[in-house]
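Recall the central idea of this unit: under ordinary conditions, the amino acid sequence of a chain determines the structure it adopts. In this exercise we apply that idea directly, starting from the sequence alone.
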Amino acid sequence: MVAVALFAVVMTVSIGALLSLTDASRKAQAIQSVMNNLNVALDGTVRALRMGTAYEVANGGKELSFAPFGVSESNRSQRWVYTFSESTSPSGEVLGRIYKTYKPTGLPRVTVPITAAEVDIDEATFYITGTSASGDVAGTAQPRVLLVIRGRAGIDKQKTTTTFDIQASATQRILDL
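Accordingly, the structure predicted from this sequence is:
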């Protein structure tokens, strides 16, 4: 009887540890997935910024617009706009996301979120150096955009959140000195 009781205690502890490890693995995979989504979104943004021209910032650094590759700087209707915006979720929670607004050929302007719903951005600011306030090149500095993001990523229901601070920068590839 003592052997059976001891076996039951050992099995209970072992199963508890196994379930705890499985839960920790699931949480780590969820956070990894969310961070991968954020990295892909930022890589796409930086790639587009490198190929763009005529950068302009508005709304205190919360909105960045530029002429994408192959579009004339004077064609304002074709500019791409990245915006940091906060919205309220169906549960009443305020979430911050980054949105991209652009105009596909032959279609009306489209606005899409580039960050996943599991990424809650508390603060995102765009900075520009090497251009004047109007977007014209200033002096001999090559135009450069710096994006600073602070937020939380993860799934609140599973208590798997992590905070992050990210900076991404892009220098205009087309020589504009």
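The chain is about 30% helix and 40% strand.
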